[in-house]
Amino acid sequence: MKIEILGIVMMILLVMALAIPLGKYIAKVYLGERTLLDRVFSSLERLFFTYSGIDPNREMTWQQNLKALLTINIVWFFLAIFILMNQAWLPLNPDKIPSMSPDLAFNTAISFLVNCNLQHYSGETALSYFSQIAVIMFLQFVTAATGMAAAAVVFNAMRQRSTDKLGNFYTYFLKSCTRILLPVSFISAVILLFSGTPMTFEGVQHFTTLQGDSASLARGPAAAMIAIKQVGTNGGGFFGVNSAHPFENPTYLTNMVENILILLLPVSMVFALGHYLNRKKLSWTIFGVMTTGFLLLLIPALYQEMNGNPALSAMGIHQPMGNMEGKEVRFGSAASAFWTISTTITSNGSVNTMHDSLTPLSGMLAMLGMMINSFFGGVGAGFLNFYIFIILAVFISGLMVGRTPEFLGKKVEAKEIKIAMIIALIHPLLILSGTAIASYLYAVNPAANAGWLNNPGYHGFSEMLYEYTSAAANNGSGFEGLGDNTPWWNISTGIVLILSRYLPLIGPVAIAGILAKKKYIPETAGTLRTDTASFGLITFVIIVLVAALSFFPALALGPLAEHFLIQ
Amino acid sequence: MSKHKKETKLFDPGLLGQATRQAFVKLNPVIMFRNPVMFTVELGTIVMLIVTIRVIIVSDASQGSFIYNLIVFMVLLFTVLFANFAEALAEARGKAQANSLRRTREETPTKKLDSEKDSFQQVPEIVPSSQLLKGDLFICETGDIIPMDGEIIQGIATIDESAITGESAPVIREAGGDKSSVTGGTKVLSDSIVVKVTTQPGESFLDKMIALVEGASRQKTPNEIALTILLAGFTLVFIIVTVTLKPFADYANTPITIAAYISLFVCLIPTTIGGLLSAIGIAGMDRALRANVIAKSGKAVETAGDIDILLLDKTGTITIGNRKATNFWPGANTSETEFIEMAVLGSLADGTPEGKSIVELGADKGISKSKMAGMEFIAFTAETRSSGVNLPDGGQIRKGAFDAINEIVGNQGNKVSARIFERVQLISKKGGTPLVVSKDGEAKGVIELQDIIKPGIEERFDRLRKMGVKTVMVTGDNPLTAQYIASRSGVDDFIAEAKPEDKMNYIRAEQARGKMVAMMGDGTNDAPALAQADVGVTMNSGTQAAKEAGNMVDLDNDPTKLIEVVEIGKQLLMTRGTLTTFSIANDVAKYFAIVPALFITSIPALQGLNIMRLHSSESAILSAVIFNAVIIPLLIPLALRGVTYRPIGASALLRRNLLIYGLGGVIVPFIGIKLIDLIVSNWY
User: Fold this and answer.
1) Could you report the per-residue pLDDT of A73-101, keeping only the tens digit for each?
2) Which member of A210, A331, A381, B502 has the lowest number of beta carbons within 10 Å of its beta carbon?
3) Are residue B431 and residue B387 in the same domain, yes or no?
4) Where are the bilayer-spanning segments (chain A) (predicted)?
C-alpha cells in the first residue's frame, strides 16, 4: 500500500523535475533563441520552408494565424480519409488489411484530427502499418503541434507591447514538431523499445502453443507510436485495449514512463509561459491552481480505488489490492487510479484500466477532470482553456479592486468577455445537450436503443455522460460498456468533436489577438496582480463554479446516485 | 470634503413610497428587457402564474398543491419587484438630490436686455426666467437672484454662491478672464453685471445630470456592458443546466415539477447582482452629486476610478492661496524691532496678499503701525519693481526682489551686505521668496515669504499613492521652488514654470504611455487640456468653454475634489465586482439545497447530498427561492452606499473582498437557507 503511494509521489516529482527545464527549453524554441538542437534541425526546417514557399519570418495577425491553422487542418483531414479508404493497396500492409468503410474512415479521421483519438476500431485488425504511421502517428504529431502553436501565438500576444504581429503559425508549428515532440518522443520510444514494446514491420506472428493450438500475435511499429500517443496528449493506442495491452505497456516501469509522459508536456507548457514572458511567478500561480485541482481529483480517486468496491466489502469479500475489477495486476489500483486522473485532466485519453469498472466516485472524478478540461489539459489546448478562465477571473477580480479589469497591462472589455463567455458556455452546452438528447431518445424508446446500454439505470446514464464529456474534452477515453458504434453515437460525437476542438482554439487566440493590439498600460500600485495566490484562488473558484457545478445535477443522477446506492 | 454633505436618509419614507410604485411600473417587459437576468426571472414568474392557474383548473396533483405553486409564484414575483425597487429607490434618491439643486432655479423675474442696445443705458424688460434663450442678455443688480447659468460680459460683482456650494463667503466674478461664469440660483451681493445666457433652457449641466440619474438618458458604461454580458452568459449556462435536466429526469424516471425547475433556474442565475446592477450605477452618480460634482456621464465617474495620474495646480490645491510672510531677517546693523517696523510701514499701503501678510506677521510679533499724515506711498511699477513709502521725515523705505533693491542700493553707492545676500540665497533654496527692504538706499534686511502647504495634504497624497495614483503639481514657479514644495507636500512630480500648453503636452505624453490622466481646471486656456484629459473636472466658477471641455463640473470649486471623485469611481466598480462574486458564490449552497430536493422522492439514496438536512423537498425549494428573493432588499443599502474603498494595494484589497464577499457568499446562504427551512418546515 505504502509502496504504491510512493510510486505515485515519485511520478509527480519526476514530472516536476523534467517539466521545469523542458518548459524553459520550449520557451527558448518559441522565442527563436539558440538551442542545442539547432545544429540537428535547422537545415531540415529550412528545407521545409524552401519547398513550401513559406517565409518563416513573416509575422502574421491573429486572424492569419488562425486561417493557417484551419487550412492545414482541412488538408490533413482529406489526406487521412484518403489513406484510410485506400490502405488495402497502399504499401506496408503485410496482413492484407482491407480498406476502411467511408463512415468509419470519416469518424477515425475526425477523431484523430481533433487530437481526441476516440477509436471505433481495433488497431490490430482494422489498420495497416502504413495507416498506423501515415495517418494515426502523423496526426498524433501534427495535431499536438497545432495546439502548441496556437498556445505559442497566445504566448506571443501576452507580451508587453501593442501589436497585431503575432509570429508565424507555420514556424511555431514546425518547431513544435521538430524541436519538442520529436526529441521527447524519440527518447521515450527507445525506453519503451528496450522494455519490450515491439517495433517491427513484420506482420502477425503465427505460432503453436504448448497445447498445440495455433495462435497469432499482432505486432507492428508500436513503440514509436506509443511514445507520441502519450507525449502529445493523443491517447489513441496501437492496439485495441490501449495501454492495458502488455505490448503497449509491458511493465510497471513503462507504466511510470508513460504516465509521466502523459503529464509532461501539459505541465511544461505552463512553465514555458513563465520563461517566455519572463513572469515566472505567473506560471507558478497557474501551476498552483492546476495542481490543486489535480490533487483534489486525484486523492479521493486514489482513496476510492485503493479501498475497493463497497458493494463487495458488504458481501464480506476482503479486497487487499483495492478495487481490481478492470485493472491490470502489474499496475495495481493506485497506479491505475493515478493514470485515470492523469489521462482525463490532460485530454490524453489513453487508458491502462477500464474506466467503466471504477468505483462511482472515481468515475465521477475522471469525468470532472474532462468537464473542467483546464487543469493542465491537452498540450497547448489545455492552457488555452485555462486562459479563458483567467480572462473571466481578471474581469471579476478587477472590478473587485475598483479598476477597469486589465490582464498583463491590457484592458479587458466587453468584446473579450463576450468571446470568453461563449467559449466557457460551449463545453457544458455540448456535453449536457448531447447527453440530454441521448437520454431522451433512450427514455422515449428503450427497446429500440437497448443495444446502447449494458447497464441501464444510473450507471448507464454515467456511460452516456462520459461519452459526450470525453468527446467534448477531446479526450478520447471511453466508459466502455456503451454500444457506441451506431449512427447516432458516431454522428453526434463527431459534431461534438469538431465544435469542441476548433472553437476553444479560435476563442483564446482571438481574445489574445484583440488584447495584444490594445495599448499597454504600465503597472501601478492600484493594478491587480495576476501572479498572486488570491488571484489564483479566484480563478480556481470560477473554474469550479462554471465548469464543475454546471454538471452537478447531471452527476447527481449518474455517479452520485450510484455511489450513495452502493454504500 | 465638501462643507455640507447633503445626507438623505437611506430609506426616506417619501422615497420608499415613490420607489414602490415605480417597482410595479418597471414590471413592463419592454423596460425589463434591458436587464437580461431579471427579464428571464420575469418570464419564469409568468410561467409560474400559468402553472398556478392551471393547477386550480385541472387540479394536476403532479405539479404540487395550489398553495405551494402560489407561494413559489409570489416569491418569484417579489424577486423581480425587489430588483425593480432597488433601481427605483436609487433613481428616487438621485432625483431628490437633483431636485434640491433644481429648486434653486425656480421661476425668477429677470431683467432682460435688448442685446442690440448698449447694456447699461436701457431700461430692462421684466420677463420670467423660463423665457430666456441662449444668447439673451440680462442684468443683475445688488440683491438679485441670477436666473440662469451664464457668462458675465460686463461688470464685476460679489456673489453669494451658498445656495449651490454651501460656502457662505462671497466670491468675486467679473467679465473677461477665468472667473466670468455665474450659476443660476446664486445671488448678487453688490454691484451689477450684465450676463449672457449660455445654455438653452433644459440643457444646463444640472439638467443633463438629472436626466442621467432619472434613467431617461442613462447609457450603460463599458464596464456595465461587459458585466451584463458576463451575467447573461451565466444565465445561459444555467438555462442549459435546467433545460437538459428534463430529459435526464425522464431517463431516471424522476418527475420534477415545473415549480422546481423554475426555482432551480432562478436560484442559480445571478439574480442578486442582476437585480442590483443598475441601482449600483445610479447610486454612483448620486454619490458624485452628493459630493457636489456634476458628472456629464456615468462613464466619466467610472473612468475616474482608473486614473493613474492627477494633475493639480499648486495654488489653491497644494498651497493655501498666496504666499505669506513667515520670517523677518534683519541685516547686521539693524535690530529686529527696527526692521519689523520698517517692513510694516513699507507694506501698509500694499493691498496685495503678500503685503497684507507682512502687516499681519508684524502684528503677530507685537508691532503694528497705522497710516500717518504726510506719508507718501509708492506703488509697485513694472519699471522700479519695488514699492514702499516716503515718510514725513524724508526717510524712504522700499521693498522688492533682490535685484530691484540691489539696483537702488547700488545707485546710492552702497552694497548689500554679505549676510543679507546669503539669507536671500538660503530663502530661495528653501523654495521661498525673499523680499529685501531698504531704507534710504541701504539694505536693512530680508522678509521671507513662503507658500503655506495645506494641512493634511501630505496624507491625501500618501493615500493616492497607495491607490496607485501619481500626483503631479503644476506651477508657474521656478524649478527650485517647485522642487522644494513638491518634496514638502509629498507630491510625486511637478511641472515648473508651466505654460498653459505644458499641461496639454504632459497629458498627451502620459496618455501615449498608456496612463489615464485627470486634471482640474477653470480657465479658458485650460479647455484643451481638460478635453484631452481622461477625466477633466471644471470648477463651477470657470469659463463656459472650460466647462464644455471637461466631463465633470465641481460646484464647490474645490481643487482637491478630484481625490473624492477617484474614490467614488473605484467604489462604483468595487460594488459591482463584490456583489457579482457574492451572487455567484451563493450558487454553491443553492445547488446543495435544490439538487437533492429534485431527486430525493424517487432516488432516496441522494439524501446523502442533502448536507443541510433540509426538512423536505418542498421546504428546501421554498427556502432557496425565499433566500434568493430576500437577499436583494437586504443588500440594497450596500448597493446604494457602495463598498468602502481602502487604499491598501490591489492584492490586499482583493484578498479582503474575496474573504468577505467570496467566502461570505458561500457561507451566508447555507445559514440563511437552513434558517428559512426551519420556519418553512412548519408547513411543508
Assistant:
1) 999 999 999 999 999 999 888 888 999 88
2) A210
3) yes
4) 6-27, 68-90, 129-155, 176-194, 260-277, 284-303, 382-401, 422-443, 488-515, 535-557
* CATH code of the domain covering residue B352: 3.40.1110.10
Q: Are residues B654 and B612 in the same domain?
A: yes
> Of B555, B576, B605, which residue sits at a domain end?
B555
- Convert B47-104 into a string of H (helix), E (strand) and C (coil): HHHHHHHHHHHHCCHHHCCHHHHHHHHHHHHHHHHHHHHHHHHHHHHHHHHHHHHHHH
- Of the partner residues B237, B603, B654, the one whose CB lies closest to the CB of residue A534: B654
Single-letter amino acid, residue A128? S
Mutating which of A162, A281, A371, A399 best tests the B interface, going by the most B Cβ atoms within 10 A? Answer: A399
Residue B668 lies in a domain: yes
Chain A residues whose beta carbon lies within 8 Å of the beta carbon of residue B226: 395, 412-414, 417
Cβ pair A525:B466 closer than 8 A: yes
- Do both B446 and B458 map to the same domain? no
The answer to whether B313 is a known catalytic residue is: yes
pLDDT tens string A135-156: 999 999 999 999 999 999 999 9
Kindly list the domain boundaries of chain A, sorted by start residue: 379-565
* Number of Cα atoms under 13 Å in the Cβ half of residue A284: 8
Instruction: Name the residue of chain B whose CA is nearest to A547's CA.
Output: B237
Residue from A281, A521, A534 to probe the interface with B (highest B Cβ count within 10 Å): A534
In angstroms, rounded to a whole number, what is the distance separating the alpha carbons of residues B638 and B578?
Answer: 10
Same domain, B334 and B194: no
- Cell matching residue A406: 486589465
Assess if residue B663 is contained within a domain: yes
Do B535 and B621 share a structural domain? no
Q: How many domains does chain B have?
A: 4
Q: Of B555, B579, B613, which closes a domain?
A: B555
Dist CA B395 CA B391 (whole Å): 5
Say which CATH number the domain at B155 has. 2.70.150.10
Beta-ladder partners of B125: B112
Please list the rounded mean pLDDT of every run of 10 residues in chain B (684 residues).
Answer: 48 83 89 89 94 85 85 94 92 79 67 72 77 83 82 84 67 77 80 83 68 65 89 93 93 89 93 91 85 83 87 78 82 85 83 81 83 77 79 85 86 85 85 86 88 82 84 84 85 85 87 87 78 87 78 80 85 92 92 90 87 90 94 93 85 90 94 94 83
Q: What domain range includes position B402? A: 324-450
* DSSP state, residue B453: B
Q: Choosing from B149, B313, B534, B558, which is the catalytic residue?
A: B313
B160 forms beta bridges with: B187
Buried b (16+ CB within 10 A) or exposed e, B72-104: bbbbbbbbbbbbbbbbbbbbbbbbbbbeebbeb
Contact assignment for A534 to B651 by CB distance below 8 Å: yes
Q: Which residues are paired to A327 by β-bridges?
A: A353
- Interchain contact, A461 vs B514, CB within 8 Å: no
Number of Cβ within 10 Å of residue A6's Cβ equals 11
Q: What type of residue sits at position A201?
A: F
**What digits encode the pLDDT tens for the residues A256-272?**
999 999 999 999 999 99
Strands B535-539 and B552-554: parallel
- Predicted pLDDT at B458: 85
**B538 has which bridge partners?**
B521, B553
Question: Is B399 a known ligand-binding residue?
Answer: yes
Residues B90 and B226 in one domain: yes
CB A226 within 8 A of CB A198: no
